[in-house]
Amino acid sequence: MDWKTLQALLSGVNKYSTAFSRIWLSMVFVFRVLVYVVAAEKVWSDDHKDFDCNTRQPGCTNVCFDHFFPVSHIRLWALQLIFVTCPSLLVIMHVAYREDRERKNREKNGENCPKLYSNTGKKHGGLWWTYLFSLIFKLIIEILFLYLLHKMWDSFDLPRLVKCSNVDPCPNTVDCYIARPTEKRVFTYFMVGASSICIVLTVCEIFYLIFKRAVQRARKWRKSTKRSVSYSKASTCHCHIKSEEKENKSQPRCVA
């Protein structure tokens, strides 16, 4: 898998991201992708080869391995990293759509025509919603994969000995031994911890976006309220002056 291509694509998101998203992207590529490529992938390369059972029954070792490892940790993490980074591409696609609209508008109405967007990468209108939904998708994917990891392997633990019973064609109960369980347990806890930190960063960014939007809305509401109050005062004064002028005209003038 070419992780460099994915990194190059996601690096463009930094131009439209908040500080939380930049930290999240650094966490993903330094503490997850880099650890996955450099170390974790090699640790799980021998998971099936060195899965040893105390029987020579043909097919029993393969069946027991499939029973305890329906999906390999390393493949599950690869899917997680792919799915968790894909929502960020929605932001790039939306910005590209805005830029294309701006280009077509200039071609149609000339270079000096009014712009459709003050800044195509600014998180306003539809782009703000796209950015928020991408964060929610990332959050759901992270939690879903952590749940799957916890469900398949109880509490992210890898015991040294697993007992395979009532699984054909294994006779009775068969003891099987996982290769390098301590090392695999350490990497599992590390990847789960990195994923948990990414979840916290995503939640913080969601609250930050909503809080910032609420503050902007409150400021606009206050400005509009002040304008309406000042306008009403001005109109009241104007009407009062007109009424005084009418009264002065209606009063009889004394002739000397």
From TrEMBL:
Tell me if Transmembrane is a UniProt keyword of this record.
yes
Instruction: Give the record's keywords alphabetically.
Output: Cell junction, Cell membrane, Gap junction, Membrane, Transmembrane, Transmembrane helix
GO BP terms: namely: cell-cell signaling
> Could you tell me the membrane topology recorded for this protein?
Multi-pass membrane protein
Q: Tell me where in this chain the Connexin N-terminal domain is found.
A: 42-75
Q: Offer an example of a GO molecular function term for this protein.
A: gap junction channel activity
- Write out the transmembrane intervals: 20-39, 77-97, 128-149, 187-211
Location in the cell: Cell junction, Gap junction; Cell membrane
State the Pfam families in the record: Connexin (PF00029)
Family indicated by similarity: Belongs to the connexin family.
**Protein name, per record:** Gap junction protein
